[in-house]
Amino acid sequence: MHVLSEHTVFIFIAQLGVILLFARIFGEIFVRLGQPIIVGEVAAGIILGPMIFGSLAPETYVFLFPKTGEQPYLLQAVSWLCVLFLLLITGLEIDFRQALKQGKQSLFISILALVFTFVSVFIYAKFLPEYLFSPEGNPVHTQLFVAIALSVVAIPVIAKILFDLKILRSEVGLNVLTTGVLSDVWGWALLAIIIALITQGSVTPITVLKPLVAMFLYVFLAYRYGARIVDKLFDFLGYKKLDTTAVLSILFSLALLNGAIAHVIGIHVIFGAFISGVMAGESDRITPYIREWVQDFIFGVFAPIFFVLIGMQLKLNRPETLIPITLLIIISSVFRIAGAYWGGIIGGLGQKNAFAVACGLNTQGTMGIIVALIGYEMAIFTEEMFTVIVIICVLTSLFVGPLLKWAIKGMTRPLAKYFDPEHVFLDVEGQTKEEIISNMATLMAERNLINNEEKIKTAIWEREKVFSTGIGEGVALPHARLVEAKEPVLCFFRLKNSVDYDSPDDKPVQLLFLELTADNDDGMHLNLMAQVTRFVSQIKNRQKLLDCQKEEEVHHIMSFDEKA
Fold first, then answer.
1. CATH number at residue 295
2. For residue 6, is it within any domain?
3. pTM for this one?
4. Is residue 65 part of a domain?
5. Pairwise CA distance, residues 483 & 488, whole Å
6. Cβ-Cβ contacts under 8 Å for 175 (sequence gap 6 or more)
7. Res 238: pLDDT
8. Predicted confidence band at 37 (pLDDT cuts at 50, 70, 90)?
């Protein structure tokens, strides 16, 4: 039996230690610069790779990262494990129920965004410089892989950016996520067909239908029965709430076994890992705490290793390659945004929202890199072409945040200026009007929104004794004027139980908007009151506020125009 030498093991653990350290250092640097951490991790790989470390200290580089022997294979195996676990947490982020609710909007956007991007890039790829193509390979195969690599969407990157922009639960955020999910499903289906075409050498109805049928049947079974299987596994092992060790072992085993199953039925192994995430994501045993813990573990260990190793493989030997990189970014971005925009218009999303969703989808990121890696492993991509695709994926991850931030500027309501997520309070206790007002002041003081709890409480109650601020339909607009108020404060409170508020229609109140303004600021007071009144006058808006499960959902509903 062959046994790894002590030196081989020493080099391997030293490699992983250096990779993780550099990934963390440069990841933090780029995060502080306002960029996605993936960019810093790839940058760390470039520094550790042959272009910088290999040039500055060639002997040390060869000692730490030898190209011969068992060392490269060990890192390659670790890299594929990282890919599987990255796809696992991507599947965990998928909410198929929410995707189905989005209906035709997400369907149209995802299909047109994929078709526009794939066709345009495939046509342009034919005119790429010859040195990017393998002399022994089929150029059409390379064109197909370039097109699919730049057509997929990076769900983990998008989710992180939506979270950072605080629009994850908004109409635009949900549309971006669900559309990205559907787009990747179509992308995986197309990738399965392309791989079947390349490996079998011809296109037949069976070549096209077999991977499609297998994949969609696989997705259906995972969605329909996956959660039950996961639940039964937890029950068998004796599930305990917040037992992270049991959850982690089950999730990792599911990713590996599903990857093996996917390979057996003719689909790429990474799609199996994605499906295992979907299965687990539908299980109620995967609590938000467990989900966050698993994501932190994978993003903290496996993702950095993968992206550093990707960066280490980049070799931009020809400066003139920057021209095709630029043109590919322009073509893929313009046609993706155009396709997604028209899909949103056809689906009735509205022009501004459709454009914002289209901008949010414009990143290949993790998924594009994974597809490029598959093409490289299959010898379809040369090192130069692989480098081109990875650079594009990194750059689009870098640009999508500022692009989306710019796109949503025209969608905010006037209330957004004074209404922050911390101004939302759900399930507020209280049995009487006076008790409710007291609890509101206490809650605001706990979040440091006000300085003098008793003074605020008294001011609101004194105003309430003059006449009730209940306006009807279960809504009240309590307010107070304060001499020391420098700027308006607007807070939303949803009561756990409806309370009699002396409303003109005698209906109990459950939705309250509290406004605090300066003593002499009549104009601002009336302006805010008019905006709130206009918003709650629509029954659908009141119902949305009643249905919200999280405070950030209320913030998005109040702050963003869903018909823009």
1. 1.20.1530.20
2. no
3. 0.67
4. no
5. 12
6. 102, 105, 106, 109, 344, 349, 353, 357
7. 66
8. confident
**pLDDT-above-70 percentage for the chain:** 86
- Mean of the per-residue pLDDT values of the chain: 80
> 367 with 455, same domain?
no
Q: Model confidence at 123, in pLDDT bands (50, 70, 90)?
A: very high
Q: Which of 213, 188, 210 is nearest to 200 (CA)?
A: 210
* 17 within some domain: no
Looking at residue 463, what is its pLDDT? Answer: 82
Closest by Cα among 370, 359, 363, 361 to 393: 363
Q: What is the 3-state secondary structure (H, E, C) of 510-547?
A: EEEEEEEEECCCHHHHHHHHHHHHHHHCCHHHHHHHHH
**DSSP of 382-445, one letter per residue?**
-HHHHHHHHHHHHHHHHHHHHHHHHHTGGGB-GGGGT--GGGEEEEE--SSHHHHHHHHHHHHH
Are 210 and 325 in the same domain?
yes
Q: Alpha-carbon distance 384 to 386, whole Å?
A: 5
* Within a domain: 473: yes
**516 pLDDT tier (thresholds 50, 70, 90):** confident
CB 411 within 8 A of CB 564: yes
Task: Give the span between the Cα atoms of 221 and 94, in whole angstroms.
Answer: 16
Q: Kindly state whether residues 452 and 381 are assigned to the same domain.
A: no
pLDDT at 207: 63
- CA angle 35/128/363 to nearest 5° reads 25
